Amino acid sequence: MIITTSQTIDGRQVTDYKGIVFGEVITGINVLKDLGAGLRNIFGGRSGSYEGELTEARETALKEMEDRAIALGADAVIAVKMDYEVLGADNGMLMVTCSGTAVKLT
Protein backbone atom coordinates (compact mmCIF):
# COMPACT_ATOMS: atom_id res chain seq x y z
CA MET A 1 0.00 0.00 0.00
CA ILE A 2 1.39 3.37 -1.04
CA ILE A 3 0.71 6.15 1.45
CA THR A 4 1.82 9.63 0.42
CA THR A 5 1.23 13.30 1.11
CA SER A 6 1.39 14.06 -2.61
CA GLN A 7 -1.65 14.04 -4.87
CA THR A 8 0.04 11.98 -7.56
CA ILE A 9 2.27 8.93 -7.70
CA ASP A 10 5.06 8.91 -10.29
CA GLY A 11 4.51 6.35 -13.02
CA ARG A 12 0.98 5.48 -11.83
CA GLN A 13 -2.42 6.87 -12.69
CA VAL A 14 -5.45 7.11 -10.43
CA THR A 15 -8.29 5.13 -12.01
CA ASP A 16 -10.87 5.25 -9.21
CA TYR A 17 -11.47 7.27 -6.08
CA LYS A 18 -12.68 5.02 -3.26
CA GLY A 19 -13.31 7.73 -0.68
CA ILE A 20 -11.74 9.57 2.23
CA VAL A 21 -10.19 7.36 4.91
CA PHE A 22 -9.21 8.28 8.45
CA GLY A 23 -7.04 7.03 11.28
CA GLU A 24 -7.51 8.34 14.81
CA VAL A 25 -5.66 7.60 18.02
CA ILE A 26 -6.18 9.16 21.43
CA THR A 27 -3.73 8.04 24.09
CA GLY A 28 -3.12 9.03 27.69
CA ILE A 29 0.25 10.19 28.97
CA ASN A 30 0.94 8.73 32.39
CA VAL A 31 2.25 10.51 35.48
CA LEU A 32 5.78 9.06 35.25
CA LYS A 33 6.16 10.32 31.68
CA ASP A 34 4.86 13.72 32.78
CA LEU A 35 7.40 13.81 35.62
CA GLY A 36 10.30 12.95 33.31
CA ALA A 37 9.17 15.48 30.71
CA GLY A 38 8.81 18.13 33.41
CA LEU A 39 12.40 17.59 34.53
CA ARG A 40 13.64 17.83 30.95
CA ASN A 41 11.67 21.05 30.59
CA ILE A 42 13.62 22.49 33.54
CA PHE A 43 17.06 21.06 32.77
CA GLY A 44 16.83 20.74 29.00
CA GLY A 45 17.05 17.75 26.70
CA ARG A 46 14.67 15.62 24.71
CA SER A 47 11.77 13.67 26.19
CA GLY A 48 12.25 10.15 24.88
CA SER A 49 9.08 8.91 26.58
CA TYR A 50 6.90 11.53 24.88
CA GLU A 51 8.67 11.00 21.55
CA GLY A 52 8.05 7.26 21.81
CA GLU A 53 4.39 7.81 22.63
CA LEU A 54 4.02 10.20 19.69
CA THR A 55 5.74 7.78 17.30
CA GLU A 56 3.52 4.88 18.40
CA ALA A 57 0.35 6.98 18.09
CA ARG A 58 1.34 8.20 14.61
CA GLU A 59 2.15 4.68 13.36
CA THR A 60 -1.12 3.32 14.78
CA ALA A 61 -3.16 6.09 13.12
CA LEU A 62 -1.47 5.45 9.75
CA LYS A 63 -2.06 1.69 10.07
CA GLU A 64 -5.74 2.28 10.90
CA MET A 65 -6.10 4.52 7.84
CA GLU A 66 -4.33 1.92 5.67
CA ASP A 67 -6.63 -0.86 6.94
CA ARG A 68 -9.68 1.21 6.04
CA ALA A 69 -8.29 1.86 2.55
CA ILE A 70 -7.65 -1.87 2.04
CA ALA A 71 -11.23 -2.59 3.10
CA LEU A 72 -12.37 -0.28 0.27
CA GLY A 73 -10.18 -2.11 -2.27
CA ALA A 74 -7.69 0.74 -2.64
CA ASP A 75 -4.07 0.45 -3.82
CA ALA A 76 -2.92 3.73 -2.28
CA VAL A 77 -3.85 6.65 -0.06
CA ILE A 78 -2.92 10.04 -1.49
CA ALA A 79 -3.02 13.61 -0.16
CA VAL A 80 -2.46 12.42 3.41
CA LYS A 81 -2.63 15.01 6.19
CA MET A 82 -1.70 14.48 9.84
CA ASP A 83 -2.71 16.47 12.88
CA TYR A 84 -1.58 16.39 16.50
CA GLU A 85 -3.51 17.79 19.46
CA VAL A 86 -3.25 17.76 23.24
CA LEU A 87 -6.57 17.11 24.99
CA GLY A 88 -8.03 16.89 28.47
CA ALA A 89 -8.39 19.25 31.40
CA ASP A 90 -4.76 18.65 32.39
CA ASN A 91 -3.46 18.17 28.82
CA GLY A 92 -2.92 14.51 29.65
CA MET A 93 -4.19 13.08 26.36
CA LEU A 94 -2.50 13.05 22.97
CA MET A 95 -4.60 12.84 19.80
CA VAL A 96 -3.14 11.96 16.41
CA THR A 97 -5.38 11.96 13.35
CA CYS A 98 -4.64 11.36 9.69
CA SER A 99 -6.79 11.45 6.59
CA GLY A 100 -6.31 10.90 2.89
CA THR A 101 -8.03 9.77 -0.29
CA ALA A 102 -8.13 6.03 -0.97
CA VAL A 103 -7.57 5.33 -4.68
CA LYS A 104 -7.11 2.54 -7.22
CA LEU A 105 -4.07 2.81 -9.49
CA THR A 106 -3.05 1.52 -12.93
TrEMBL record:
InterPro entries: UPF0145_dom_sf, UPF0145_YbjQ-like. It holds the Pfam family YbjQ_1. It comes from the Bacteria. Belongs to the UPF0145 family. This is UPF0145 protein J2S23_000467.
